[in-house]
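for the writeup, i need someone to sanity check this before i put it in the appendix. the sequnce is what the collaborator sent (i think, or maybe the updated version? ugh). structure was predicted straight from it, no edits. if anything looks off just tell me and ill rerun, i have time this weekend
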Amino acid sequence: MRHAVVAAGLPIVAYDRLKKESFRKLVPTGQLFAKPVRWAGYDPDQAQSYIKEIHDFILDHPEGTEVSISVLFVDYNNESTREFSDSFFPFSAVRPITPFKMDVDLNAHDLRTRLNAYQKVVEKELDELKKRTAIVRQFTHIQNLTPLLLLLNNFISADYQAMMRRLFEQLGTHDDPSSFLKDEMNDFFKRHPRTYPSAGGRHGKGQHCLTDGIHHFKSPGRHRHGFYRPTRDHEHPMVCLLNARSRLGGAYSHNFHFDCEAISGGLNRHYPNCHGAPCPPKENHVNIAPNDYII
């Protein structure tokens, strides 16, 4: 398991204090990415800069390496902060922290004291974020079908979209993230109960699957014959890879996908892939990875 962790939005003085600590010590199981901001907000290209760093970090590891993605960010309570945070949906866990309070009349001693206290807050929050990604992994890296890995482009459900938004926005700060996850998934199954297709399909009869009322989303079982294989010069946007490794900060198996079959009638002529490009299905089914990559 490798952790790609972002510490974003620190002003220059707090960033310089962070650099005095070993990034390897702060994230011993992965890499910490951080850069300072020069105003109380985020430049438009800052999220993309972090995404590129995480993308390259993933490519530097063997294909089957589990990767958890998380973002600790200073909440400046403005539109630039919201846009920055939204850039990491749905693959990252996100957790806001309060800005560093920099009074103009602080002397050098008081500034050091305040910076040291803020540094401890940052370290504590990084630890808490890691704990939360471990909780999410309990729901994403499992053998059974989990709604947390359903497809945002191809599972047609406004309820599901709303659930994923709530999880993304609240998991980082909820008092009881495990219970919150369980409650949200229980509500999901009330709206989308597990179903048992009458026909056996390609991988046997009697196994439950998930459905949006249009398709059955079945487990591939042991037939994990295809998955998203990126290269550094791939035509896919970089977020396609991040979405193929982590969901809400929880790592998942890189070769997991859904076997999707139409409930009635035929398959669609095309299905939107991980960046929205139309892709044709196979003759009787379509294999789709959690990041919507059409296999």
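Residues 147-288 form one domain. Helices lie at 12-19, 23-26, 46-59, 79-86, 108-140, 158-170, 177-191, 239-243.
thx in advance!!
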